[in-house]
Design a protein that fits this description.
3 strands, Plant cadmium resistance 2, mainly alpha, globular, PLAC_motif_containing
Length: about 160
């Protein structure tokens, strides 16, 4: 790393990467959401989310929990919370977990505000984020993306 300066103030900073390329920026770009809040890319997911948001939420929760909770269980809990209009509280917790997992910023505002103001848009954005990161929420948790397939036990022979 090279730096030039006059005492307390650096004029510029160069950082050489392992490939020999110079980077004049100190840190990499912060991660961003791959889909905007109002990006309705997958019409199928949007329709399911508008009419049966408990399905989309269950799929997201299963992936975020890495298979520790099932889509059906989380979807049912979400559906029961919809009866008393408290479902936003559960979904904002999972949005926070998703953001923490991938280092995403709280955009456009904090998680509970996003889910309270536009629940369907928030669920669609989270679903799209998981798809863009290599997960398929409709299939459930099958391991991290690009993981080698589970090995099959050897067959028994006589």
């Amino acid at each position: 790393m090279l730096a030039a300066g006059d005492g307390n103030r650096d004029i510029f900073m160069l950082k050489l990467s392992s490939t020999g390329n110079m980077n004049i920026f100190n840190s990499p770009r912060p991660p961003k959401w791959s889909a905007s809040l109002c990006d309705f890319g997958d019409i199928g997911t949007c329709c399911i989310t508008c009419w049966l948001p408990c399905i989309t939420f269950g799929q997201i929760a299963e992936i975020v929990d890495q298979g520790q909770s099932s889509c059906i269980k989380q979807g049912c809990v979400y559906g029961l919370l919809m009866l008393c209009s408290c479902h936003c509280l559960l979904s904002c917790v999972y949005r926070e977990k998703l953001r923490a997992k991938f280092g995403l910023p709280p955009e456009p505002c904090n998680d509970c505000c996003v889910h309270f103001c536009c629940e369907a848009c928030a669920l669609c954005q989270e679903h799209a984020e998981l798809k863009n990161r290599g997960f398929d929420p409709s299939k459930g948790w099958i391991g991290p993306p690009n993981a080698p397939p589970p090995s099959m036990p050897p067959t028994m022979r006589r």
